[in-house]
Structures are given as C-alpha cells and as structure tokens.
C-alpha cells in the first residue's frame, strides 16, 4: 500500500466526516422546519377553531332572528285570519241581528212585562236600604261586577294562551340549541382527530431524527476508532523509527484536526515503505546467498596437477 493510497484514504475519510456533519446539520434544519410548520398548523387550528365559534354564534343569532321574524309573521297571519273571521262573524251576526230584531223587540216587550215584578222588588229593596237611591244604581253595580268577572276570565284565557306559546317557543329553542351543540361537538371531535394526527406525525419525525442521530453517533464512533488505530500505528512506527534518527512527534487525539491525522498517515506510509524496502532487500540478499551456495556445490572438480618428477619421467 503506497503513501498516496494512504493519503487518499485519509482524505476520503475526512470528506465522509464532513458529509456526515453536513447531513446532520441538514437533518437538524429539517427538524426545526417541521417543528415550525407544526406550530404554524397549531396556530391555524386555533384560529380556525375561533372562526368556527364565531360562525356558530352568528349562526345562532341568525336562527334566533329568523325565529323571531317567523313568529312575527305567524302572529300577523293569525291576527289577519282572526280579523277576517271576526269581520265575517260580525257580518253574520249583523244579518242575524237584522232578522232577529223584530223577535228581540217582541221578546223585550215580553221581558218588560216579566220584569215588572223585579222592578217592584227593587223599589221595595230601596225602601229598606239607604245605600242605593235608585234601582239603576243596583243594576249598575251588578253590571260592574259582571264586567270585572268577564275581564278576569278573558285575562286568564290570554295568559294561558301566552304561556302555551312561550312554552312552545322555549321547546323549539331547546331543540335548536341541542342540534347546535351536537354539531359543534362533532366539529370539535374532528379537529381533535386532526390534532392527534399531527401529534403522530411529529412523533414519527422525532423518531426519524433520533434514528439519524444514532446513525451519526455510530459513524462518529467509527471515526474515533479509526483515529485511535491511526494513533496506535503511528506510535509503533515512531518508536521503531527513533532508533535510527530522531523526528518530531505528531500528536493527534479524538479532537485532532485532519492535518495532524494526514501527517500521521503520511509518516506511517513512509515507515511501511521503509519496512517493505528492508524486507525486500533482505529477501534479495538471502536469495543471492542461497544462489551462491548452490553454485559452489554444483561446480565440477579440477584434475590434479603433475609434479616436476612426474613431468621428467614422462619426457
């Protein structure tokens, strides 16, 4: 593995770290935007709830006004019908009175004759009672009491009629109010469901953000482990390299910057390159020694040289 590859790997790791941080910032910004939208939706929901209440109040007032107008129209129609009937009854009554005037006249004459005894009785009462001076006073008193009795009866009938009418109006208002309350309750329940759905969406968004945070934490942990491994290799290379020549030590902890880590990786790459060079040189020397040893063992033996004595004898 070359120094360039190590530097490329470190650069890639640094770029991934920056991408992870950028993505985490984007997720946080998205979370803030979602929370802002949720708050805005809640404000809109409160505003719509207030608008709905205002509409319900206006609708209730509109119903009351229509009910009052309807009652007025009904009263007017009833009054007109009653007046028409009264006029008709008056006409009929006048016709009947016209036909019966002669009979009444005769009956009055007959009645007058019958009332003569009552006249005599009243005059006898006047003689015994000083409170009344004339029979007409007694008759007037009786008429006053009779009229008062009739007025009280008419007042009683009117009050009973008004009470029944007011009871009917009150019952209608109760029914209308119950219907309005039911509609408002249903609308409020629907809004509650929408609010619950929004809470669920917020919960899901929070779960997603927590998952992303855990994922980023795992990535950060992995980056820390890579930094620790790099520091470990650097320390070993540094200790072995100090034997030959002293160098400046680069310290890089968990909070170290990317430049320090790159310097450490560069130093590790140089150390590994020296190690590979030494290893290859050693293997090559061992190979040469082995080849020399084999050459020595396979070389042919030289013939023995003749001595001077042997050379003379041969001549």
Fold topology:
Blueprint (H helix, E strand, L loop, with lengths): L2 H126 L6 H107 L16 H41 L9 H7 L1
Helix pairs in contact: 1-2, 1-3, 2-3
Structural class: mainly alpha
Give a quick account of the main beta sheet: strands, pairing sense, barrel closure. none
> Which range does the strand content fall in?
under 5%
- Cα Rg: 63 Å
Number of helices: 4
Which regions contain 5 or more consecutive residues with pLDDT less than 50? none
Number of strands: 0
Distance between the ends: 73 Å
How would you characterize this protein structure?
There is one protein chain. With 315 residues, the chain is mainly α. Helix content is 89%, strand content 0%. It contains 4 helices and no strands. Helix 1 (3-128) packs antiparallel against helix 2, helix 1 (3-128) runs antiparallel to helix 3 and helix 2 packs parallel to helix 3 (258-298). The model has no long low-confidence stretch (mean pLDDT 80).
Q: Can I get a quick summary?
A:
With 315 residues, this protein is an all-alpha fold.
Keywords:
315 residues; mainly alpha; 0% strand
């Amino acid at each position: 593995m070359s120094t360039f590859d190590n530097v490329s790997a470190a650069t890639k790791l640094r770029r991934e770290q920056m991408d992870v941080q950028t993505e985490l910032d984007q997720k946080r910004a998205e979370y803030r935007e979602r929370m802002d939208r949720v708050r805005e939706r809640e404000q809109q929901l409160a505003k719509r709830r207030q608008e709905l209440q205002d509409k319900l109040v206006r609708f209730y007032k509109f119903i009351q006004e229509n009910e009052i107008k309807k009652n007025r129209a009904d009263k007017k129609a009833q009054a007109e019908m009653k007046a028409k009937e009264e006029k008709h009854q008056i006409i009929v009554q006048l016709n009947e009175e016209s036909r019966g005037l002669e009979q009444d006249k005769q009956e009055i004459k007959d009645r007058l004759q019958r009332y003569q005894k009552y006249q005599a009785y009243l005059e006898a009462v006047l003689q015994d009672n000083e409170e009344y001076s004339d029979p007409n006073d007694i008759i007037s008193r009786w008429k006053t009491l009779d009229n008062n009795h009739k007025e009280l009866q008419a007042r009683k009938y009117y009050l009973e009629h008004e009470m029944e009418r007011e009871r009917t109006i009150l019952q209608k208002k109760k029914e209308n109010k119950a219907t309005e309350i039911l509609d408002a309750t249903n609308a409020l329940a629907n809004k509650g469901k929408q609010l619950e759905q929004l809470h669920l969406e917020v919960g899901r968004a929070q779960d997603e953000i927590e998952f992303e945070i855990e994922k980023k934490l795992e990535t950060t942990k992995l980056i820390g482990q890579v930094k620790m491994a790099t520091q470990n290799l650097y320390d070993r290379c540094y200790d072995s390299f100090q034997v030959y020549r002293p160098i400046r030590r680069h310290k890089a902890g968990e909070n170290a910057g990317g430049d320090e880590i790159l310097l450490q990786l560069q130093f590790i790459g140089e150390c590994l390159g020296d190690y590979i060079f030494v290893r290859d040189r050693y293997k090559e020397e061992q190979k040469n020694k082995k080849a020399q040893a084999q050459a020595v063992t396979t070389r042919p033996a030289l013939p023995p040289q003749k001595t001077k004595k042997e050379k003379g004898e041969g001549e």
